[in-house]
């Protein structure tokens, strides 16, 4: 007598009751399983990203916001902090490492982060193709960002102001160039576009210049008298071609408004010509006829002979001073950018270790105190503490869902019990006949138990399929929202215990009907049939 086959046939004979019990088990299992998958992957990603980061220093604000913006890159920063005051972090005697972050731009929804090589080294990331950043306007891209954006080595693109997709002003003056792509790390690094801090400064200096420096009133260009006293050409070397104090009263531009080319207090950092000799400008006699600015003719200012470190001005249209097409892609033409008045968004801080290689307890106490004592602008947050708070806040929802899953599983067990118990009453005569034909009470007991376990196994398998398939479907949405890679095709040790739990539920749901089957009185049952 094949008990397994017999048990299956009994279940198939009651399809509605069997299906209902199976679905209830599947719902409970799938909900519990998907919670395990979400919780495990979330916590792994969250804790791995704060590994060895003891403190985040940024502008004063919400500590949780500091962590979300500077560590996880899923929120806006609390603000910027002055670079000139950063010594309280970088020169702090209890700080082993302070990694600068400069935020503010993005490309197609992926953040551009100004930092240094410490950031990549800290997370143990490796270059898959290309190399690390060596100069301004170069970027190294995380694996997922490169894949989603379709960027390859040598590709160029323009960043935009803001941290959201299609967010703000596009920085069209300078183009980034991809010089490296990182291997996948399953960390937030995979979602980032990394450059150096000075590139971020340069981008925003250009942005500020565009907003303020390009208001070029024609009155400032009134050269009616053409006073050349401002053109002091006693020395023929125009070191750095400095227009900062250059009196443009000498440049009669007629009605030519240079809205795009402000010479007032324009720094001309991008036009630094070093020891730029104006051999083409014979200023000994300084022929005024050649300097006829009525039509703003720059024939006498022939820049064709001027070598600007690879930045050729021969095609530079001075009639309209159109800078829209004046795009710098190579930093060789760019001078070092001044740090005066510059800011960074945050520092990721690692404390010094004690003699045992553990984080120094003294550093944990003293480092934040030194920051408090020396700067009123700086705030800080401890990632481990803030992450624990975050998990506690989200844990309420997780606990509720876990309780709901547990209740569903209990309901499925009760449904299974009712189904088996009610069918047992209908099958008492059949069981008495089985006893007459030689089946022992133990076999009847095992048969009923097997029915409960078969329903549990069917529900378990269906629930696992639903949870893992559902997780895989949700993964793309979760990646877009939280910037982490999720997968439904991983199996956790917790699911092993979930399997045992489902089997136990099937067993206990069938135990009472099985005991009753074991105790069937053959003579009484057949006499009442």
Question: Summed up, what is this model?
Answer:
Pfam families: FtsX, MacB_PCD. This protein has 529 residues and is an alpha+beta fold.
Describe this protein's structure.
It holds the Pfam family FtsX. Keywords: Cell membrane, Membrane, Transmembrane, Transmembrane helix. It comes from Aureispira anguillae. The chain has 529 residues and is of the alpha+beta class. It has 2 domains: 3-47 and 397-527, no CATH class; 55-211 and 338-381, no CATH class. It is built from 13 helices and 13 strands. Strands 1, 3, 4, 5, 6, 7, 8, 9, 10, 12 and 13 form an 11-stranded mixed β-sheet that branches. A two-stranded antiparallel ribbon has the order 2-11. β3 and β4 (110-115) form a beta hairpin. α1 (3-12) packs across α11 (441-482) and α2 packs antiparallel against α12. The longest helix is centred in the last third of the chain and has 44 residues, at 383-426.
Write the layout of secondary structure elements.
Blueprint: H1 3-12, H2 15-49, E1 55-59, H3 63-70, E2 81-82, H4 87-90, E3 95-107, E4 110-115, H5 117-122, E5 127-130, E6 138-141, H6 143-149, E7 156-157, E8 160-161, E9 176-182, E10 193-196, H7 197-213, E11 343-344, E12 346-351, H8 361-374, E13 378-381, H9 383-426, H10 428-436, H11 441-482, H12 493-518, H13 522-527
């Amino acid at each position: 007598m094949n008990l397994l086959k017999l048990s299956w046939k009994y279940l198939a004979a009651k399809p509605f009751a069997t299906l209902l019990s199976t679905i209830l088990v599947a719902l409970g299992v799938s909900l519990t399983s998907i919670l395990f998958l979400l919780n495990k992957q979330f916590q792994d990603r969250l804790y791995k990203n704060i590994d060895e980061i003891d403190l985040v220093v940024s502008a004063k604000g919400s500590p949780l916001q500091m962590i979300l913006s500077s560590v996880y890159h899923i929120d806006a920063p609390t603000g910027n902090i002055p670079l000139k005051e950063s010594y309280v972090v970088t020169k702090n005697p209890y700080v082993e490492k302070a990694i600068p972050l400069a935020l503010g731009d993005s490309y197609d929804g992926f953040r551009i982060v100004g930092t240094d090589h410490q950031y990549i080294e800290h997370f143990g990331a490796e270059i898959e193709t290309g190399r690390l950043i060596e100069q301004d306007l170069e970027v190294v891209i995380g694996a997922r960002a490169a894949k989603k954006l379709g960027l390859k080595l040598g590709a160029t693109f323009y960043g935009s102001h803001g941290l959201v997709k299609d967010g703000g002003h596009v920085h069209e003056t300078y183009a980034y160039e991809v010089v490296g792509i990182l291997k996948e790390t399953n960390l937030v690094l995979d979602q980032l576009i990394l450059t150096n801090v000075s590139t971020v400064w340069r981008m925003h200096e250009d942005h500020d210049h565009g907003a303020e420096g390009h208001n070029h009133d024609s009155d400032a260009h009134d050269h009616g008298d053409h006073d050349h006293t401002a053109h002091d050409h006693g020395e023929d070397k125009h070191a750095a071609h400095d227009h900062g104090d250059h009196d443009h009263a000498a440049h009669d531009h007629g009605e030519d408004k240079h809205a795009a080319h402000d010479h007032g207090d324009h720094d001309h950092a991008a036009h630094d010509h070093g020891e730029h000799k104006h051999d083409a400008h014979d200023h000994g006699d300084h022929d005024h006829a050649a300097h006829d600015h009525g039509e703003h003719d720059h024939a006498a200012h022939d820049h064709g002979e001027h070598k600007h470190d690879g930045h050729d001005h021969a095609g530079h249209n001075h009639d309209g001073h159109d800078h829209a097409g004046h795009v710098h892609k190579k930093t060789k033409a760019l001078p070092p950018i001044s740090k005066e008045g510059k800011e960074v968004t945050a520092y990721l801080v690692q404390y010094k270790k004690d003699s045992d290689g553990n984080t120094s307890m003294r550093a944990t106490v003293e480092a934040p105190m030194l920051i408090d004592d020396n700067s009123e602008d700086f705030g800080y947050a401890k990632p481990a503490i803030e992450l624990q708070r975050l998990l506690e806040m989200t844990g309420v929802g997780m606990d509720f869902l876990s309780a709901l899953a547990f209740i569903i599983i209990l309901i499925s067990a009760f449904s299974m019990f009712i189904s088996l118990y009610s069918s047992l009453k209908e099958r008492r005569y059949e069981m008495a006949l089985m006893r007459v034909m030689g089946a022992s009470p133990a076999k009847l007991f095992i048969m009923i138990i097997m029915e409960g376990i078969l329903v549990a196994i069917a529900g378990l398998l269906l629930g696992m399929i639903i949870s893992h398939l559902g997780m895989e479907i949700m993964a793309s949405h979760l990646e877009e929202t939280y910037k982490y890679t999720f997968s439904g095709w991983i199996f956790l040790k917790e699911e092993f215990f979930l399997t045992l739990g489902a089997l136990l539920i099937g067993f206990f749901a069938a135990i009472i009907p099985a005991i009753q089957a074991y105790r069937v009185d053959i003579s009484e049952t057949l006499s009442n049939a």
